[in-house]
């Protein structure tokens, strides 16, 4: 990913992750990359990836299950979806 100099890097990563959620690349109830993988994928420091995850969590766009990972939230509830799409299993 190429970063623009006129915007903070963490905001650009946040916008890209939100785009992926919006476009269905990261789907409700399914895991998304954790901090280490996100940092590597976007070429940023782990602290930057942690900030992105914290912002998404605070906005109710993702949720974390201890010992399981971080998942995309249901847009209506901000938590796990009631039912996962059977076609995706």
Blueprint of the fold:
Layout (H helix, E strand, L loop, with lengths): L8 H14 L12 H8 L3 H13 L3 E4 L3 E4 L17
Antiparallel strand pairs: 1-2
Helix pairs in contact: 1-3, 2-3
What would you note in describing this structure?
With 89 residues, this protein is mostly helical. 39% of the residues lie in helices and 9% in strands. The protein has helices spanning 9-22, 35-42, 46-58, and strands at 62-65, 69-72. It is globular.
What is the succession of H and E elements? HHHEE
Indicate the percent of residues in helices: 25-40%
Total of DSSP H or I helical runs spanning 4+ residues: 3
Task: Measure the end-to-end span.
Answer: 30 Å
Number of DSSP-assigned strands: 2
Radius of gyration: 13 Å
User: Quick check: average pLDDT?
Assistant: 90
**What is the percentage of strand-forming residues?**
5-15%
* Poorly predicted runs of 5 or more residues: none
Strand order of the largest sheet: 1-2
What does the largest sheet look like?
2 strands, antiparallel
Structural class: mainly alpha
Overall 3D geometry? globular
């Amino acid at each position: 990913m190429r970063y623009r100099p006129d915007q903070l890097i963490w905001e650009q990563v946040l916008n890209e992750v939100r785009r992926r959620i919006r476009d269905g690349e990261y789907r409700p109830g399914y895991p998304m990359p954790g901090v280490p993988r996100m940092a590597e994928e976007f070429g940023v420091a782990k602290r930057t990836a942690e900030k992105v995850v914290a912002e998404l969590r605070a906005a109710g766009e993702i949720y974390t299950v201890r010992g399981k990972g971080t998942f995309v939230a249901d847009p209506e509830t901000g938590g796990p979806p009631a039912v996962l799409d059977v076609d995706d299993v």
